Amino acid sequence: MARHGWGGRPPANEEEARQRIIDATAGLIDRHGVAKTTLSDVAAELGVTRQTVYRHLGSISEIVSVVAARGAEDFVDRMVSHLEGSRSPADAVVEGILFCLRTVPNDPRLNLLLQLGDTATFSRAATSPVMLGYGSAMLRRFPVDWADAGVSDDDLDGLAEMIMRLLISLLDSSTEVPRPEDEVRALLERWLVPALTRS
């Protein structure tokens, strides 16, 4: 590892170098937004060259994707904690969707997913096999008994896709006024809850 740059404290190994680049990028995004964060900015923040940053993590879009993914992991932890005490899988899904609608637009790390291109790009990314796999893994962490609602482990993949598609629509920033939460809750309780309630 080179001894110059890095604010006089060079990283001990590759993992530490990557983590410091990610942390610096996250800090810049929090302060200036993703549109005003460049590879040069990250390099300057760390006191290294652009080539050094590129060697460890690649392009700024790759680094921003890592920042967004780590923000999503923290978000899932917060959501699971929020859902503790849910009465049923249906209740957890409704509260989880409402939690997303409250949290995602105001969270700079999660909002990266919405800022990385236009709505169509976000829609494709959010329903990619990787994101749907992530969504079903998130549902498996919900503190509920899915079998009690007649939802099998295999069914969680389809449920994750439906939730992601619904969230894309509800988070669409092109609408002038976001729908009030009580209206969204009523919509979910009328059409989604019956599908998650054993008759």
Automatic annotation (TrEMBL):
Recorded GO molecular functions are: DNA-binding transcription factor activity; transcription cis-regulatory region binding
What are the UniProt keywords, alphabetically? DNA-binding, Transcription, Transcription regulation
Give every HTH tetR-type domain span: 15-75
The record, for SUPFAM superfamilies, names:
Homeodomain-like
DNA-binding stretch(es), residue numbering of this chain: 38-57
Keyword Oxidoreductase set for record: no
Keyword Cytoplasm part of the UniProt annotation: no
Q: What is this protein called?
A: TetR family transcriptional regulator
Organism this protein belongs to: Dietzia psychralcaliphila
